[in-house]
Each structure stands twice: as C-alpha cells, then as structure tokens.
TrEMBL record:
Transmembrane segments: none
Keyword set includes Cytoplasm: yes
Gene3D superfamilies to which the protein is assigned, alphabetical: Ribosome hibernation promotion factor-like, Sigma 54 modulation/S30EA ribosomal protein, C-terminal domain
HAMAP family per UniProt: HPF
Protein family according to the UniProt entry: Belongs to the HPF/YfiA ribosome-associated protein family. Long HPF subfamily.
Protein keywords: Cytoplasm, Translation regulation
Subcellular location: Cytoplasm
Major location (coarse): cytoplasm
CDD domains for this protein: RaiA
Source organism of this protein record: Poseidonocella sedimentorum
Protein name: Ribosome hibernation promoting factor
GO biological process: negative regulation of translational elongation
Functional description taken from the UniProt entry: Required for dimerization of active 70S ribosomes into 100S ribosomes in stationary phase; 100S ribosomes are translationally inactive and sometimes present during exponential growth.
GO terms of molecular function: ribosomal small subunit binding
C-alpha cells in the first residue's frame, strides 16, 4: 500500500510515520483486504491536532475518518479507531460487493461548482437571478449499485452522494434524511 503522510505547517517525524504505517496496515489488512493507497494529513486547529485519513480500496470505494486530540499521536489513534469501526461495520458488504465486482468502480468526470451564499437580508431583492460562482472544479462520479452508493456515502461520512446507477445507467443521488433514514433519488424512473 502506498502512503502519503503529510503535515500542514507541522513537521511529521519518522517515528510518527512508522507508527501510522504499522497501525493503519494492521487495521486495513484485517478488514479491507487489498487497499491501494492511503493519505494521512495532520494539521493544527487551535490547541488541538487534527488527523484526516483517506484510504482508497481496490474495489474503488473510499473510507474516510477525521479526529481531534491535544496530542498528535492521540489524534491519529482516535482517527484509526474510527477507520477500524467503519471498516469492521462494512466488512461483510465490502467482501460481498468485491465478489460481484471483477473490475474496479468506473468513474467519469463532471464539473462541480461552489456558489456564493447570500449576504444581503431576505427583504432586499437580488440584483440578478444568476448566482455568483466562487469556484469551479473537476470531480469524479462513480458508477455504483444503490447498495454500494449507500455504503460509500457512509464510509465517506458524506451527507449526499451523486453516482451513476449501474442498473439503469442514469445519474442518481442518495442522501441522509433528517429522520436518519437514507433517501434515494432515481431520475430515470421519474
């Protein structure tokens, strides 16, 4: 597995890198099988250290975890515990989907935009109905089944996931509802 261990304005020493590699190897080999690469980013937020970990699995799915602590090793250990919990929770599903899938998840490119929020009060009329685009980026939309999409959304800790449905080749959305359930928007069946 390839590792990219970096620090944002923090020096990440050899001892911490060795600790991260050994702990993450143990967790990922136990629950996920064949990971391809991992990105671990350490940063500082006030008095706390922040550890963000992203592990890309051979099936094309991604697991993410983030944790805060007053010590850098404790931040990583907390993050590793969250990652282990996610992978343990989805181990059966990861194995089941991996058996059905002979090729990694197919992805295609799409444009993603960040729109400026309204700073004016609700009482004033906007000058134009066109929103101000703050940033334009490229993103990847995976081709997944609905079950895989829900699992990917849960693993990533995201509130919403846009994906290409393998069943009907249409663009679909899964999202976490306020009542705790998962919503699924299937535009092809509208």
């Amino acid at each position: 597995m390839r590792y990219q261990i970096t620090g944002k304005q923090i020096d990440v020493g050899a001892a911490l890198q060795t600790h991260v590699k050994s702990e993450l190897d143990e967790i990922v080999q136990k629950y996920a099988g064949r990971p391809t690469d991992a990105t671990i980013i350490f940063s500082k937020s006030g008095a706390e250290f922040v550890c963000e970990t992203v592990v890309h699995l051979s099936t094309g799915l991604t697991a993410q975890a983030k944790a805060h602590a007053h010590e850098i090793y404790a931040a990583f250990d907390s993050c590793a515990t969250k990652m282990e919990k996610q992978l343990r929770r989805y181990k059966r599903r990861l194995k089941d989907h991996h058996k059905e899938r002979s090729q990694p998840v197919e992805v295609f490119g799409a444009s993603a935009y960040i729109l400026a929020s309204e700073t004016e009060s609700d009482e004033t009329e906007p000058e134009t109905l066109q929103p101000i685009i703050v940033a334009e980026m490229q993103t990847k939309v995976p081709s997944l089944s609905v079950g895989e999409a829900v699992m990917q959304m849960e693993l990533a800790g995201a509130p919403v996931l846009v994906f290409k449905n393998e069943g009907n080749s249409g663009v679909n959305v899964v999202y976490r509802r306020d009542d705790g359930n998962i919503g699924w928007i299937d535009a092809a069946n509208a």
